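One record is set out below.
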Amino acid sequence: MKAAEGFPSGLCAQHRAIEALLRQLDGVRTRGGTSDEEDLRLLAALRRLLLPHLAAEEEHLYPLARRYLPVGRALADAAGCTHASIRRLLDRADDCRLSVTGRRRATAVLLLVLRTHLRGEEEQLFPALRARARPDELRRCERRLREPRAGPPGATGPAGPAVRGLPQGAGAITALRDRLTGHDNSGQHSP
């Protein structure tokens, strides 16, 4: 399994980038007195990193967990709920109508949930997959995770309009679920 030992290195690299932004948001919160624009800029950067990351996990990582882990189905279902919560928390923290204090509170909750989720994946999910999944499946998943994401929002292709943050033709179920639960990938709550 030597070739798969680094799995999922692409996701771990994304986790590091997300964590770096979380540290910057921590700094904004602890310094106080910083501008509201800095909060919004960092939250926008977090959104750009986070939404494609969550979509890639849902599309490639969690199906692998469903196949290879004894509790993979429950784990993937729980992760889907956590991802939906993270999206809602990000929308809340990024709400321009909030006061600076309200945004900081919402951001603190987002950071806590997100860090807990990332730590759980790295400490439990990734090692479990390395131990149980076939090396060729791990390599295939790693390759898929490294594939470029969809083009700009509204791009069209053979499968129709791209769902923001997902490759064209993928994510129809996720898009439907998000629509039914009142969340869409544009960062707005659906009516």
